[in-house]
Amino acid sequence: MPSGMYFTIVLLPLLVATIVGLFGNRLGDKASMWITSGGVLVSMLLSLVGFMEIAVYGKPAIEATLYEWIASGALSVSFGIYIDKLTVLMLVLVTVVSSMVHVYSIGYMADDPSKPRFFSYLSLFTFMMLALVTAPNLVQLFLGWEGVGLASYLLIGFWHHKESANAASIKAFLVNRVADIGLILAMLVAFAVFGSVAFGDIFASAQSVAGQSMNFLGMNVPVLELFALLLLFGAMGKSAQIGLHTWLPDAMEGPTPVSALIHAATMVTAGVFLLARMSPVFELTEIALMVVAWVGALTAIFAAIIGLTQTDIKRVIAYSTCSQLGYMFFACGVSAYSAAMFHLFAHGFFKALLFLSAGSVIHALHHEQNLFKMGGVRHLLPITYGLMWIGSLALAGIPPFAGFFSKDFILESAFMSGTQTGYSLYIIGTIAAFLTAFYSFRVLFLAFHGTFNGDKETFDNAHESPFIMTVPMMVLAVGAIAAGMLGLPMMDTAWWNGSIVIFENIHVGVVEAHNSPLLIKLLPLIVAIAGISLAWLMYIKRRGLADKMTKALDILYSLSFNKFYFDEIYEAIIVAPIRSFSKFLWQKGDVEIIDRFGPDGVAELTRRISVTIRPLQTGYVYHYAFVIILGMLALITWLMV
Amino acid sequence: MLTEFSMSNILPALPEIFLAGSILALLLVGVFSAKENASRSVLGLSLVSLVVTLLLILSGSLSSHHIEFAFPYGQGLDGGPAGFFFISDLFSIYAKSLILLVAIIAIILSEDVLNRLRINKFEFYILVLVSVLGMMVMVSSHHLLTMYMGLELMSFSLYVLVSFWRDNNKSSEAGLKYFVLGSLASGLLLFGLSYIYGVVGDLSFTAIGDVISDIQMDGQNVTLVVALVLVMTALAFKLSAVPFHMWTPDVYQGAPTPVTTFMAAGPKVAAFALLMRLLTEPFAAMAADWTQVIIALSILTMAVGSYMAIVQTNLKRLLAYSSIGHVGFMLVGLVGGTAQGVQSVLMYLTIYSLMTMGAFGLLMLLRRKDIYLETIDDVAGLSEQAPAYAFMLMLLMFSIAGIPPLAGFFAKFYVFSAAVAAGYSWLAILAVLFSVIVAYYVLRVVRSMYFDKMVSVSVDLSAPLLMRGVVVGLVIFVAGYIFAMQPLDEFTYRAAESLLLAKNF
User: Fold this and answer.
1) Model pTM score
2) Which whole-number Å values give the CA distances from B468 to A149, B286, B361, in the listed order?
3) Domain locations in chain B?
4) Contact A636/B180, CB-based, under 8 Å?
5) Main-chain dihedrals φ then ψ at residue B469, nearest 5 degrees
6) Which pLDDT value is given to residue B5?
7) How far A599 CA sits from the closest chain B CA (Å)?
């Protein structure tokens, strides 16, 4: 029974997470680590089998129901699976990266006292992500959506004794919740318009409601545009798009394997996945697609600019993730969902590799994350150094590494869509590609070349990570090299077998991508090489140049270094007013009024009544007898009157 | 005048007759056994006779007749008997089974404590048996004389049992108080019964019911109202409903804990069953009057039971007020006198009896250096010294507070929904508010066990296996009731229906 295998893929991580979560302390660290890693590895192997079946041999999509989850009136939601090419692609990506992160963590977390908890959270996160990508309806997708939010909260705040980690985990959770409102409203709209939350039903009737409009917040809006924009708002939170991106860099407070799992291949890709899954709806919209494209483009360029100046190794990679997710969004915006998924797939591998390599450096240097306190460790960490090269080349888009194919595909699709927006996006994307190449090699050169800038003791104790950490990185490196070439068939829309819908007669970009002029094809590669060269010039050849440029471009530098003051602006216009209003409600409203007259007041009154009537119980028999007679007489009198 | 003797006129009372015979036999066994093992053998034999009696009663539930009468007397106009002394219906079968179960549990829980207090004499078990017999007669009475006989048989044994620890001042004081006040209540009851006889000219429930419904046609009868109040006062005294409750805390605290355990459950079941039979059969026509009395009693009882429990520090006294509060909740179910109401009270009685006995049973298991835990401060830190016992006590306490999914929640749910169905939503709302106060004192106990600083004296838990098993069983009932409520629900419903059918015979 093939659906049984897919249920196993999804549920096995939940099983191991539960076992280790409940009994981890009794099982011991070793058993906990191997049970969770083993469970996810089995899940990975089964996913590869599934990938062969569905993606390679082209078997039809599978839909199966585990049980009826919610049945209330007209609403019927089942817990089940929907496996098509889109899903198996995500299954492979999620399980491969997750299992590599599990194994890597065995080495990385070796000194941590609460390993069972960590591994249980990792597996729980994996389950939630798998439930998300296999969902046959919006509600189950939402379960996974919130589930990864919860698990990421637990993982980012894993070192809960660190105040910054706590703050970061709460921030991640809250920002995601804001975006989730969009998804919740989208579910309600879906139920109101389509009468169902199942993907099949929505797609089947999307065409027929295309012209309709409904009342939303007092305005008459086209239903599909509304639905798509709400979905987009939800996706923007998870995928850290501009405006709702602030949680992602802060989330680097979590252990580095967590960053590799959550912020490279899984949680942040959920938004892109949602857009691709909903392509039959988005294809029928005009405004929504345009908004998607511009949100993505702005994110791509803006995060890349911030990435130029950050000093924390993980934050640079985090902003590059932000930027790459922007690419995927604007690919969706020009209807190149296949290009977006291709880039998502390739990016998952090389970004996880970059995070794990960074983790390896951090691990070697005793949790030092500041780039300017590193340098010159390439001889000490030769394997990590080599792997970092692979990851950086892939990110910069140098052939034959994965990023080259997928990024080019996106840019060509944007150019060939033939619209004004398309050209603008191509230009923005190309500039971002230049910046990407620059900052990824800035990291590489600062960390591994030059002289060491930290204290001597750290340098002397630095050593290459053990095999348990380097082997998973090598596996991902293979992915980072091969994913691009292996993924080439994805460029053909027909390959997706209906799991992605593109109206190719209207949105021509994807189809025409191959026919783009040679200059257009080569330009991204040229700017990437230029970026790398500039980084080499500034950080190896002439180290002083960087400081001079900083001084010359003072305003621009501080804008970038301070992340365009997003956090400060949010603090001033949203967080601070809410906090002071809450404080008012708490101190004046709750303590002074509700507590005083409510719970505390009633409790005090109750106690006083008790104390007051207590002396009635005298202990004298004749008092008792008197009360009996009195009570009897009172009852008689009352009934007589 | 007496009708002919026939087996069918006696057979419905077979369980009572068997139990009476056993009591006499056990007296002889106790007297003629060697002194050291007299109590042991009487204990064993009384358990056997209680179990046999229970089986005899349950076999009655299999009979095709749901209602059987026994001991006819006089001659009616149609040539048949004028009335019966005794009735056996599903209602009485249910109530008596519960009483016997309570007695069996109480006896098993008693022995260890009696030994430690050095008052393990065989008379204890015989007195329990006698009072059980009294309760059974009360439940099955269909005539005011039978009723009075049963009531007094129960009461007198209890007076002795309360003062059974006669070396202890508190026990003697409690027995004396209970006896004096009980006599007062008994006098009021007889006074009321004489009024009834004066108006009706007969003591059979059937006759009283017929005459009262005729009289009520012409409006309120002052004599009957007085009689009703007097009878209800006497029963309210046995139930410890406010304002006839004042003996309860003193007696519950003063009596040896095994006696308290038995008293908190058995007599309540019997008195409630009798009250329900009286109100729905002979006094059915006066429902408008007695409903007011019930409402007044229930509100007062809930209020005093809840409020007074808050300031208690002694656990036995606290449980005494808690049981007063429970009586108030049960009275809520009685308003309207519907089948659903009767069922809800039976269900409440069952759950209340078992969970209260569980709580007292735990108090009889927990000692610090041979001194039983008595106050809230005594249990401080119990969660670390005896985690399993603390957990069980917490479950029982939460059940007493009516927290779902424990049995106590469903008990309240049954009576409140009965009150709502009978059109007394306001009373149900009031009752819910009072049940919140219950949580106040329950949580104090739990807090002491789990959060207060530990008493340094270690806890001694050695006890006979059977006793511990029974306590665990009671806790399992309380926690697992939710999974097994269906059969009880059915049984109580049929019992309630049979009670309301009985008046048509």
Assistant:
1) 0.68
2) 47, 47, 9
3) 7-502
4) no
5) -60, -40
6) 63
7) 12
